[in-house]
Amino acid sequence: MALDKDIYQAFAGVVGEENLCDDPAMMPAYFNTAHAAIIMPKDTAEVQAVVRLCNKVKLKYRPFC
C-alpha cells in the first residue's frame, strides 16, 4: 500500500525523498511485513516530526531500530 501523494510529499519534506520509500517492489528489502512506507529520520527532531505527521493524518507507525 503506497502513501497518498500529498502525504508522501509531507514526509519527504521532513526527512528528504532519499530517506523515504513507499515503492511496493522495494518494501520487502526493508522488512517482511506490509507497511505503507519506510521512513528513515536522521535525528530526534525528524522522529518527532514524523510522529506528529502520522498522528495528524491518522497513520499508524511502528518504530524500528
Helix and strand topology:
Elements: H1 5-15, E1 20-21, H2 27-30, E2 38-39, H3 44-57
Antiparallel strand pairs: 1-2
Helix pairs in contact: 1-3
Task: Tell me about this structure.
Helix 1 (5-15) packs antiparallel against helix 3 (44-57). The mean pLDDT is 88. The chain has helices spanning 5-15, 27-30, 44-57, and strands at 20-21, 38-39. Strands 1-2 form a two-stranded antiparallel ribbon. 6% of the residues are buried. The chain contains three helices and two strands, in the order αβαβα. It is mainly alpha-helical and 65 residues long.
What fraction, in percent, of the residue positions are helical? Answer: 40-55%
Instruction: Report the sheet-strand fraction.
Output: 5-15%
Q: How is the biggest beta sheet arranged?
A: 2 strands, antiparallel
Q: Which strands sit side by side, in order, in the main sheet?
A: 1-2
Number of helices: 3
Q: Could you state the oligomeric state of the chains shown?
A: single chain
Poorly predicted ranges (pLDDT <50, ≥5 residues)? none
Structural class: mainly alpha
Shape: globular
> Could you tell me the mean pLDDT?
88
Please tell me how large the radius of gyration is: 11 Å
Order of helices and strands: HEHEH
Give the beta-strand count. 2
Distance between the termini: 22 Å
